What does this fold into?
Amino acid sequence: MKRKSRTTLRNKADKLFSLAIRNRDDHCLACGSAFRLQCAHIVSRRYGATRWSMDNAVCLCARCHLKYTHDPLGWEEWVDDRFGKGRLVQLKLRARQGVAKVDLAAVVESLK
Ligand SMILES: [Zn+2]
It folds into this structure.
């Protein structure tokens, strides 16, 4: 039961986060397209500490998202070009530092 409600909260946080990123950026930051927009994490969303950080995601179209998913080094280069080298360094540090347990209810609340 507890496990399920945590999964539900995480899905909700993901949905709200994706919406917030797409609303903020409004178009694909790589190619400019406004078609099939998605939320793309800069540092993989597998790291809970930065999974819902607004500075760890950008809006990409499905095509660019897929392209960079299969080219992680090209992705890092794009991020460096776009935001400067500091962004990725900082995000990686925060991601690796981690958090014991993400307060999902607080994340959902902050994204509403
Ligand atoms: Zn694109």
